[in-house]
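In the lab's daily routine, each protein ends up as an entry in a very long ledger. A line of letters takes care of the sequence, but it says nothing directly about the fold. The three-dimensional part falls to structure tokens, numbers that each stand for a local backbone shape. The outcome of that step, for a single protein, is printed below.
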Amino acid sequence: MTEKADKIIWITGSGRGIGRETALNLARRGQRVVISSRTQSDLDAVIHEAGPTGAKLMAQVCDVTDTEGVARLVRKVEKSWGPIDVLVNNAGVAVFKKLVNTSLEEWEKMMATNAGSAFLCTAAVLPGMIARQRGQIINVISVAGRQPFYNSGAYCASKYAMKGFNDVLRLETRKHGIQVTAFMPGATDTSIWGSSNADRQKMMKAAEVAQTLADLCCTPPSLMVEEVVMRPIGGDL
């Protein structure tokens, strides 16, 4: 089985941050990339920045916590380009608070966006991947899915859930030739930090992290990169 010259890659939450930079990187490599976000203006900005390589991008507004919205996106992609070869579950939100100060609404939003969307998007593409006996799913989890951080209880819980989902998914699907990777970056300078007083000068840059994520999307089908952990050179903040 030979590697496709141009894969069809769907990156959720790709209007900003690591997802955005990964999409731009892959488009420059000649890959076809579906970018999705809840915000049309963010998607428009990615297309504009891509310039001539923007023809390799398909922008779709999608709430990845909505089952029908996800199914609608997959149908549109399959009709226009064909089946999705690589799914990058990258959409995520964060609220940095102690658990005692975290509301149920905040807890449920992080669970739905960070872990729930990974399940919904995977469920939408997985049957086709199994039928074709090939495919790739990369879950962008964060190091917060393997160790706790102060003031990040709900965020860590959602990422631990995502890591468990990732590992069971790999266990169940590798016999079908499907590659499942846990991508776990540490502190990266993106908008997810909001008004947090974290020292962004010590963080990794989104474009630098995206270089490795884009490489993973181009992994040959004969091997499995199970887990990638990245941290700032100075360690965790």
The mean pLDDT is 95. The helical segments are 17-28, 40-50, 67-80, 104-132, 153-173, 206-217.
